[in-house]
Automatic annotation (TrEMBL):
This is PepSY domain-containing protein. It comes from the Bacteria. Keywords: Membrane, Transmembrane, Transmembrane helix. It comes from Flagellimonas pelagia. The chain crosses the membrane at residues 21-41, 154-176. Pfam families: PepSY_TM. Residues 182-202 are annotated as: Disordered.
Length: 202
């Protein structure tokens, strides 16, 4: 099998893998690209995707209220201002020392309550759409609702990571392979062996 024939065979295989991967995982690539784009802009959407971090009165932690007191204020605020039907289960507490504020981020509907760390004043209440986008981006949205302890996210990120790698490698070869084939086609043929000089018989 010649070199050019071998290159053509590899090119056909790569084209098939590239086409199949793109067709089967199109919808997932679409969600990953859109959510990734939005997450990249989350801090530049004027609070639409991610609520702005508010500034409290002091960055001195010794002047802050105890965390349990701040937690009580956040829970009361969520029920009184947003809805008494929301769960008070916390996802995390985000303390911004330099800003003098603390964020209580709840699991239910991605709500957050920002408080002044020193006075307990409510600085803002909002939904973290960025957290929802992150969960869609990495597939953990299904773990969240099916309570599968991260297994779906692990499987999803593994499949998509390997697929994206294949997509990149095959895409590169679909661009580079034909160049190599054209280069091989233009190669000068080897010189023919010199024919012996026969003398005519008398």
């Amino acid at each position: 099998m010649g070199k050019r024939t071998q290159q053509a065979k590899i090119l056909r295989v790569f084209r098939k893998v590239h086409r199949t991967t793109g067709a089967l995982l199109f919808i997932f690539f679409f969600f990953i690209s859109v959510t990734g784009l939005l997450l990249g802009w989350k801090k530049n959407t004027n609070g639409v995707i991610l609520p702005k971090t508010q500034k409290g009165t002091t960055a001195e932690l010794k002047n802050w209220l105890p965390v349990d007191s701040l937690h009580t204020i956040a829970c009361t605020t969520l029920h009184n201002i947003v809805s008494p039907d929301l769960s008070l289960e916390l996802d995390r507490i985000d303390m911004r020392k330099q800003k003098g504020s603390v964020k209580f981020i709840f699991v239910d509907n991605y709500y957050e309550v920002q408080l002044d760390g020193a006075t307990g004043e409510v600085l803002s209440i909002g939904q973290r759409k960025s957290d929802f986008l992150e969960n869609v981006h990495d597939g953990s949205i299904l773990d969240r609702y099916l309570n599968t302890d991260g297994y779906i996210k692990l499987s999803y990120t593994t499949i998509m990571g390997v697929s994206l790698l294949l997509f990149t490698v095959t895409g590169f070869w679909l661009w580079y392979g034909p160049k190599q084939m054209r280069k091989s086609g233009k190669a000068k043929p080897d010189k023919l062996p010199k024919q012996p000089n026969y003398q005519p018989l008398n």
